Fold these 3 entries.
Entry 1:
Amino acid sequence: MLLRTNETIENKTLNNFLTSHQYLIHDLQIDPTGTILVSSSSDNCLKFYSNKDSTWKETFTLELEENTNIWKLAWSPSTFGYVIAGVTFQNEVVIISQAFENKKMQWKQQTTVCSLPDSIQKISFSPDELGLVLGVADSSGILHIYHAEDPSQPNIWKKHSEIIVANTCLRAFDWGLQPNYPVMIITAAINRSVKIWKFCEEGLKWESIFNLGIELEVYDIVWSNFVGRDFHLIAISTEEALEIWKIEKLKNNAYQNIEKERIAYFTQINDSIWKLGWNETGNVLASTSNKGIVKLWKANLLGNWSCISTITGNEDEDNDDDDEDEDELEFEIGN
C-alpha cells in the first residue's frame, strides 16, 4: 500500500511512502515525539517507520502471534520509552515494546493485558504523571483501568480499578489533570450520558462529580492539557455537531455549583465528526469526519473559535492499471 500526500503546507511538500502491507490497513499512529509511525494491517503484522529529513522509511516489521490481528493502536507517553497497546479482533489488549535481543533493539509482542467478553471501544494511556496506566472502554459500559507497577517492565500489568459508567456501550473517554487535584476521567456512553469522575485514593474507587448534560449521542470526547489556564477545555463530537466546553477549575467538595459553558458549537450537516484530538498546548483542535475531512480549529484573541485549515482526502484518479491492488491516499490543504 502507498500512503501519499502531495500538497504543500507552508512551502513544505509532504512525501509519499510505501507501507509494504499486503492487506487492509486498520490503524496508523505516530508516537508522541513525532519520529516513529506504526501501522497495523490484516496481514497480521505491525510495521514501523522512522522520520528522517521529513521522509518516512520502514525500519522494522513485527509478525504478531497467531490470531492477533490488531485494529486499534495507542502509544504510551514518551516518558516510558516506546510502549504500544493494541486491540485485537478477539477483544484482547496486547502490549508491544522495544526489547534488546540479538545484540540490538527490536520490537516485541510482550504480553496480553486483558481479554474481555465484550467488544472494546477505545483504549488510551493516561498522562505520565499517573505512571504507566491504560484505560480500556468496552461495550458493556465499563471502563477498565490497568497499570504497570514497574514501568521499566511493560510485560507485567495488573488491574487497578474500574468505572461502571452505564448499562450500555461506553463510546469514548479521556483523562483530565489539574494541579493539586485527584486525577479525573470524562466518559461518554451512547445513552447520552457524559460524566466527569475523580479518583478517590481511599477505597481505590471513582466518584462521579457531575453530568455535563449533552443531549445528543457522542462519538468522541477529548480533554485538553491544563496548560497556562485556570479553566478546562473539553471538545465533544456528537451526531449533529462539534462542541467545545469551558469548565472552571475544580475545587474539592464543591461540585454542585461548578461553572460550565459551551463556548463553541458547529453544526455538521451530512458530515459526522468521528475523532478529535488536541495539540500539546491545548489551543488547536483537530477533527476527522466520515467523509475523510480533517479540520483544525482555533480560537482568536477574543475567544471565538473557527476552522483555520481543512484537509480533504480524495481518491487518486491517476492510478496505473498495474497498481490496482495498492491503496493511495492524497490530501489537499486549504485554509
Entry 2:
Amino acid sequence: EKFINRASPIRLNHIHSSANYPQFNMDSPTTVLDSPHVKTIKHLKRLLRYDVDDLLEQVNDFTAFAKDLQAYSWRLNNKEQRFMEAVMHFQGELASDAPFIEAVENAHSCHH
C-alpha cells in the first residue's frame, strides 16, 4: 500500500497559516473564476433585490438557487453558512405563502 505524505502548511514569519492562502467570501470582488457556490450566492442576492411581488413570481427560481446553495453547504465559510440558513428559512416562508397570496390576488381580481 502507498501512503500519501501530507505536508504541513507553510508558516511565513509565524503568521496564521490561513494568511498564506487567498481568502474569498461572498463579499469578495469577482474572482477570475468564481466557484459554483459564489455564483449561486450572487444569483440569490440579485433575486433578493426584487420587490416582493416580483420575487413571488420568481419563487421557483429562488427555490432552485436556494437548493443549489444548500448542496454546496460543505464548501461554505461561516458567513456563507449563515446566509444559506437565512435564505433557506426565507425560501420556506416564500414557497408556503406564494400559493396563498396568488389565490387571494386571483379572488380579488375576480370580484373587481
Entry 3:
Amino acid sequence: MAEGSTKLQYTVAYTIEFVEGVILMGLCLWKESFDYPYKYHIAAIALTCFVVGLSIMLVYYAFFHPAKD
C-alpha cells in the first residue's frame, strides 16, 4: 500500500488520459478522410464509459475502500 495520499497523482494521470482521449477523438471526428459510419456513436460511448468508470471508482474509494487508521 502506498504511503500518504495518492489523490494528486491519480488526478493528474486521469486528467492526462482524458485530454489524450479527447484529442484523439477530436482528430478522428474532424478528419473527413476517416469515414466510418458510426464514429460519432463510438466517440460518445467511449466518453460515457470513461465518465462512468471514474464515477464508479470515486464511489468505491469514498465508501468501500478500506482505510488505514
